[in-house]
Each structure stands twice: as structure tokens, then as C-alpha cells.
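When time allows, look over one protein, given below as sequence and C-alpha cells. The question is which stretches look regular and which look disordered:
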Amino acid sequence: MKLSLFSTLRGYRKEYFPKDIFSGIIIAAVSIPISMGYAQISGIPAVYGLYGS
């Protein structure tokens, strides 16, 4: 069985990189506080929500 980890990056264009990084930052900025809030609502420490993100 041959496993190629970077075969999906073969068609990736370098000009996509800045927008992909920006999108990742936006997703993190939204999802991390939400998951920490859900953890607090469920009665566990908020840090576990952070770990789950």
C-alpha cells in the first residue's frame, strides 16, 4: 500500500495561500469562543472546549 500525503497539494497554487491563511484565522476566531462557551454551558471548564477546537 502506497501512501502519498502530498498528492492533494499537486494542483495547489501559491497565490491561494494568503487567502487560505486568512480564512483559517477567521474560522479559528469564530469557532474557538463558541466551543469554549459550549463547554462552560455543559458544566466543564472552558479549556476543554479549547482542546476540542
